[in-house]
Amino acid sequence: MFGRLFKFFALCLLAWAVARWFLKPSQRRNLHELISALAIALLISAGLFCVLYWLGWRNI
Fold this sequence. Notes:
The protein has two helices and no strands. The mean pLDDT is 86. 85% of the residues lie in helices and 0% in strands. The protein has a domain at 24-60. The longest helix has 30 residues, at 25-54. It has helices spanning 2-22, 25-54. By secondary structure, the chain is mainly α. 0% of the residues are buried.
């Protein structure tokens, strides 16, 4: 499990370094907005599935 977690963090660190190295500040800002929007959508989706599971809709 720690190996997978280490690989995930190494991949994230590599992606962050590449973004800092190759992208201009305005492009980094747009990328940050995109990632923030995707994270919010993921949290909303997870919350919706939790509510549906709590209401008894377990066969989705």
